[in-house]
Amino acid sequence: MALLPILEFPDPRLRKVASPVTHFDDRLRSLVANMLETMYHAEGIGLAATQVNVHKRLLVLDVSQEKDSPHVFVNPEFEVIEEELQDYQEGCLSVPGFFEDVSRPRAIRVSARDQRGEAFELEARGVLAVCIQHEIDHLDGKLFVDYLSPLKRRRIRGKLQKEQRKSA
Ligand code: QAP
Ligand code: CO
Fold first, then answer.
1. In sequence order, which residues have a C-beta less than 8 Å from that of residue 83 and are 6 or more positions away?
2. Which of 5, 7, 79, 128 has the most CB atoms at less than 10 Å from its CB?
3. Ramachandran area for residue 130 (φ above 0: left; ψ -120 to 50: alpha; else beta)
4. Per-position pLDDT tens, the chain of length 168
5. Candidates 14, 39, 67, 93: which one to mutate for ligand 1, based on the most atoms within 8 Å of Cβ?
């Protein structure tokens, strides 16, 4: 297994739209293992392939307290089953150090495949619904900062670019 480098806002590669996974092979399963290792190491609850510069429709998450419930979603799609919005303070491993409220539909039905190609469906609400919507946004080149005011987004971009220049 290996830790993968995580792209940081405003890297333009975070804006790419990912394409569907077509091969459920050992390469995919090894990518899934590395993404889970990277997510746990970074103390995240979700990670999309886009964030590790792989532009395939794949995400991993674990919203459990014990960090013992990894979930893999390949080619995920969702429909809203409760339009009512919930606010949740979101962060992102690609926007380190910043957390802001975002409103999203509070309940969704998700259909996806696992890393073996097996189809499944689930209903999600609470933090799981937030996390799945946040990660699917990544696959479409969207970030949670896109839901903030232009002023907040600009401040975050400025601070992160300054950090990135220091560490470059
Ligand atoms: C998306 O985000 C999410 O800035 C996953 O310093 C976040 O795992 C969904 C993280 C909140 C629902 C609610 C961010 C860790 C992790 C940071 C993450 C940081 C350390 C973010
Ligand atoms: Co994110």
1. 105
2. 128
3. alpha
4. 899 999 999 999 999 999 999 999 999 999 999 999 999 999 999 999 999 999 999 999 999 999 999 999 999 999 999 999 999 999 999 999 999 999 999 999 999 999 999 999 999 999 999 999 999 999 999 999 999 999 999 999 999 999 999 998
5. 93
Does residue 145 have its Cβ closer than 6 Å to ligand 1? no
Say whether 43 is catalytic.
Answer: no
Ligand 1, pocket-test mutation among 59, 60, 90, most atoms within 8 A of CB: 90
Q: What is the CA radius of gyration of the chain?
A: 16
